[in-house]
Design brief:
The longest helix is centred in the middle third of the chain and has 22 residues. The protein has an eight-stranded mixed sheet, with helices on both faces. Helix 6 packs across helix 9 and helix 7 packs across helix 8. It has two domains: about 250 residues, 3-Layer(aba) Sandwich (Rossmann fold), CATH 3.40.50; about 45 residues, no CATH class. Strand 7, helix 10 and strand 8 form a beta-alpha-beta unit. By secondary structure, the protein is of the alpha/beta class. The radius of gyration is 19 Å and the shape is globular. The protein contains twelve helices and eight strands. The protein starts with a helix and ends with a helix.
Amino acid sequence: MTSDMVAKAPAFPGYTPISTRIFIRNEASSSDLENTRTKTTSNDPTTILVYGWGDGSPKHVAKYSEGYHALFPSARIVVIINPIFAATTQLLPQRTESMRPIIDTCFPTKDDGSERVIMHIMSNTGGIYAAATLNAYRERHGQDAALPHHLCVSDSTPGSLNFTSEVWRWSRAMAMGVPRWFPLPFKFTQALCAAFLSLMNYLAIAMGVEPSGVHSARIFTEHGYATPRALRLFCYSKEDDLIYWEDLEEQAANARNKGYNTVLEEFKGSPHVGHMRMHPEQYWATILRCWEQAMAMDEKA
């Protein structure tokens, strides 16, 4: 971590930046940390990686970190903030480099079986940078190395990868992140975002570059990158207007066919990445249940 990184990092009270976009939750004191560790079990996660949705603010993404801290007080919790613009313009080497501080800080050596990790991914933008983290781990520790994790929570992701049918919904998500002072009406802003995304898609095709969303979906079904030992939990609702539930169920079925154990959890009436906000008890109970299931799977392996 450099002083330049810290200087440019957004204000995020209670968290220490390790880059401009990656933050580790602070413990109140060393004695508090020691007290929580005495209460933990050998099956609690050691590290939790929380990938925020596109343009999600630290204040809002931190609510997931706090929820995890309530469940697993001794776990190291890392929050990753993900701008949509970067996800659509950066090439894989740039995306990988931006996630390298996670590997340097949390996984500096190759897995020896001691790590118990949860990856919590929100929306497609979160998935893009989670995939970049998997790539960064392999680049650091070798092509035979997959980032160790036991549970992968996919909240409102992944959806369809068909650009033509999805571009208007993706542009809506991008337009929602535009500052309020931007002078154009929302529909015009969305149209500009759609034009921008279309241009980026055209350039990717012309250059023979795999689009970031397609890459992330592929990587998470390749055992060499995403370990099949990890349980997959898909959280979704039929009211999500950005990720259609049929597409998400199809992606979950594809993961299952590729050898991943999957769990689908439907939330009634909640919007895109709004399941925890509307149904907190169901949300955290589901994650705890799936973590216990993942630990049981690991013991049998």
